[in-house]
Every structure is written in C-alpha cells, then in structure tokens.
Request: fold
Amino acid sequence: MFNLENSSIRKNLILIQLTTAFMAVLICCGFFVYNDIKLFRDSSIKTKYSIAEIVGLSVAPALGFLDEEAATQMLAKLKSNPAILNAAIFDKDGKEFARYTRTGQQPFTFSLSGNSEKESQEGYMQKVIVSYKVRDPDFLGTVMLRAELQGFKEILMNYIQVGVFILIISLVVAFIISTFLQQYITNRLLAFVAKTKEVGDTNNFSIRLPTAGKDEIATLSVAFNNMLAQIEKMQSALKHSNVELEKRVKRRTAELERANQELERFVYVASHDLQEPLRTISNYTGLLEKGYSAQLDDTANKYLSRTLRAASRMRTLIRDLLELSRIGRNAQFTQVDTTEIMKETIAQLNAAIEESHTKITYTGLPVLTGNEVELKLLFQNLVSNAIKFRKAEGTPEINVSAVDRDTHYLFAFADNGIGIEEQYKERIFIVFQRLHGKDEYAGTGIGLATCQKIVTLHKGEIWVKSTPGLGSTFYFTIAKDLK
Amino acid sequence: MKAKWIIPFLLLFFVQGTSMSPIAESNEEYNLKAAFVYRFTNYIDWETHLGNEDFVIGIVGASPISQPLYAIAKSQTVKGHKIIIRTFNTPADIGRCHLLFIPQRTGFSLSEIMGRVPKGMLTVSEKPGYAAQGTNINFVVVDDKLKFEINTKSLYTSGLTASSQILKLAIIVN
Reply:
C-alpha cells in the first residue's frame, strides 16, 4: 500500500486527485460499456427472436399437416443467415420434428425444458439460444435457434480502445489541473513548513509567518505567530532572570567566600594568639604548684590544680580548633594505604585501647588517593570516638571495613557502643555540639566536625546509622577522582 | 398399405408402438384426417362471410371420421364460429354446409354427389383420383405419409381461396 505520510503533500494531493479522476472515469466507462453491451446483446437477441418468429410462422402449416420434409426445407433457408448455427423444430409433444445445422457446425441438442421461451445463455457474450412457440392458434410446436452474437468482439475491443483513450486523456487533464490547483495550497503550506523549519534551526523566535487569507493555513499561521511571540517573550524573560540570578549567585558566593575566609582567619588567629597567653598561664601555674604547694593550704592547692586542668583542657580545645581551621589548607593528595593508617591509628591510641580492652578488627582497606595527614586524623577521631562512647559493661568491639563502589570507596566504622538517638544524628557533625556532659565523656565537641570537613575535602559524605544501646556505624565515602 | 404409412404416426403419437389392430389403425387414420380437415379451415377463405352462422361440416353417409370430428366440434371453433356436424345419407339430402367430406365408399358416384354441391362449399374426399375428378381437396398417401391434393381450378370455380402456405404443402392437381 501507499505510505502517504512519507511523501510530500504536493505529490499526495496530485496522487489523490489523479486517483479520484481515474476512478470516476473508470466507473463511468465501465457503466457505459456494460450498458451498451447489454443493449447490443438485447437487440441482438431481439433480432434472433424475430427470425425465430418468422420461421415459426412459416413453418406452422407444415407442423399442422405433419410435413417434416417441408419444415426441413424451410429451416434450410436459414443458411442465408450466417449467424444462425443450429435450429430445430419440436412438435407439440416435444418430439424433434425438423432440424438444421449450419455447414461446418457441430449438431446441437436443444433442450426444450432447459431454455426459457425467449432466450437462453450459452456463453453470455458469444452465443444465444432463442425459442418461439408456434400457435395457429393452438400450440403446434417450438422453434429453437442457436445463434452467434456477431461483431461482439469487435465492439468490445472498440470500447476498450475508446475507454483507454478517454482514461489517458482524463488523467492528463486531471494532472494538469491538479498541478495548477494544488499550488495554491502546497505553496503556502511549504512556505509555512520552511518558516517553521527556519525557526527550529536558528532558534530565532522573532520570525513571523505571512497571515494573508482566511483559510486554515492562515489560521494556523496566526496561531503559530502567537506561539512564537509567547516563546520569544518567555525566552527573553528567562534570559533576563538567568542573568540576574547568575549575578546574585556570584555576589553571594563571593560574600560567602569572604566571610568564610575571614572566619577561618579569625579562628586561626584567635586560637594561635590565644595559645601564647595560655602557655604563660599554664607555665606560671605549673611553677606555682611545683615551688609553692607546700606553702599553700589545701584550698589554695585545690584551686591551683583546677586552674591547671582548665588550662590543659583549653590547650586541647585550641589545638583542635586550630586543626579544624587548618584542614584543607594547601592539602596535597598522594597514594595512601589505609591499612597502614589503621595500624598507625591503633599504635597511637594504644593506651586507650589497652585500658578499655577494646577489640579492633579491620578488613579490605584499600590503597587510595588522599591526604595522609587528614585521613590519619579522621581514623583517629572515629576510633577514639568509638572507644569513648563504649558501654560500661562488656568488651568494646570496633570493626572497620571498606567497599569499592566504582566512583568511590565506602568505609564503615562499626562499634557496639551506646549508640545515638535518632534526633541527634545530624547534630553530631556540627562543631561544639555535645550530647553528653563534660564530666561524663571528655572531649571538645570538635571531633566529628573535623571528620566531616576531612571527608568533604575528599569529595565524600559522612553519616551514621545507629541503634541506641546496640551500637553505631559511621559511614563515609572517599571519591576516587579528587580533581 | 394402410399399415405401412401409419407406423410413423403411431411412433409419433405414442411414445412406444402399441397394438396394431385394424380398428386402431382406422381410428388413428381418421383422427388424423379429422385434424387435417379442421386445420384446412384455417387456410381456406370462404368468399361469403359467415355472419352469425355456425360453421357446418357435412358428411355424405357414414364414415369413421364423424367420431373424431364430433370431438373437435365440441372443443374448437372455426374463426370463432361454433362447429356443427351434419350427415347426409343421400346426395339429395345435401343441404347447406361449408365443408363436405366425401368418404371412400358412399354408395354414390362422385358425379352424383358433386352435382348437388353448390358454389362456396369446400369438398374434401379420400379416394385416389378424386381431386382430378373435381373435388377441392383429396387425401392421398405418399411414402407412407398422409398428404393431400388440392385442385386449384375447382377451388377457383367454387369461389374459394387457399392460402399460399397450404398450397406449398399440397400436391397441386388441375
């Protein structure tokens, strides 16, 4: 079948018009040919019937007086008509009375019952059988003729020739007319398509289509123009807001960066500058305790030791703060074996591990690209956290593992400690957020914030899953591509 | 001789050959003759119009043809006229009729009969040579088939006209 959707409208319109014209002419021709052939046949049959009638009238006396010879002689006169192939006369009882067969023709057996009174078919277009009942006035017998429809083939051929000629002429005319008429539609349509294509290719929404006329194409053009105008308006608005947005983002980013830098510098400077007076305080307090504790009473000694402890805690606090602010500054990435880091961590925290009888296991820790110093700090913080928040009874256990996840490594530090309440899971990574009192668990509240900063430096994330009373697992990822 | 010509008619009227008794032969022969006689009326023109009269067929003496003729008269008409059959025992009895059938044996000479036949009366006989002697139509048997002679001259003098169609089938005698 045709696939009209894949060829152009111009071709389709012509094709449709040609097909319509072809069908119309074909149907007309067919009808006229059928009608004329039927007329030809009917008139031909009428002629043959008249011959049968004449034969019947002239043969009536012979039939009446049973003169077969005379009847046969009369039938023999039919040889002057070459269309008559066979003839027969039957008497009133249906017995054959006389017959005639044209020279060169096969004898034909007529059937009285099978043939209707007037005609019978034997090859609709070639031969015909007619019969005539002889009455004088009583029924005497039947005359039957079998005749050729002469000239039928010639007429048919003639019709076919004329039909083909008319078809060709009408197709040519239809083609010419449709070629001219379809231009009216297709030219405008093609112009429309060309314009829309131009819009699509150039993204130039300021293009407008001509909208002359009142037909569907004009309506479509108006609708398309409206659409273009709307798109244009929206596009410019979008562009404008985009520019605004970018500017704002840039401004905000710059502000944030400046604020962040100021903050970090402030923290660094503050902690650094705080160290100096603190060192003086702890040094002199230390000297005071060493040299004058004997001269001081108990209350004074108690105050002194408390001052020393606070100074020491403040030193730790300042050190941690310095560390936090230092992370990411001039960080260098190298090949790091995390198994080695784990080993060093265990060595570093040996005292705490021994004291708490913590069992540490680790498997599958990879060699990766990262900052060795920071990663060490991360491991230390996580392990010491796990030891710190162990349960009062039982053996603390820590299991460290890692999985390769294509773009990153996923580490897990699982412990069987006290666990974390659901509501605190986010807060624990914020600096100075402590869930427990200073006396219960020692610490500055900076450790996990430092961890998060280190993981962020390695383009990763850190989170925790925990069941209070059963233990926590800290997960973090380290990206493989750190650029 | 009769048997010879009647065989094809037996075959023609009966699908299979039946009894060949003389009565049957005779019956068939006269059935046919009666039918022919009736049919002659179709092809002969009586000059004088029949008006409202009945069509009268006369028979001289007794003949086997009367039976089938009566049968025909019951069911048929001649050009719309009722058919009446009359028998004339002697030539002197011959009265008004349109067609006179003269049987083979009448006991009278032909001239005696013909002397009583007026103009306009069609005479039909069944004895070889009678047509030549003046009857209008005479049945003969040729090649075992029933044929008839027409004496056109006597027909003319009788003031009757035969159609060309019947003349074609007849043996013309002058």
In short: The radius of gyration of chain A is 58 Å. Chain A is about 55% helix and 15% strand.
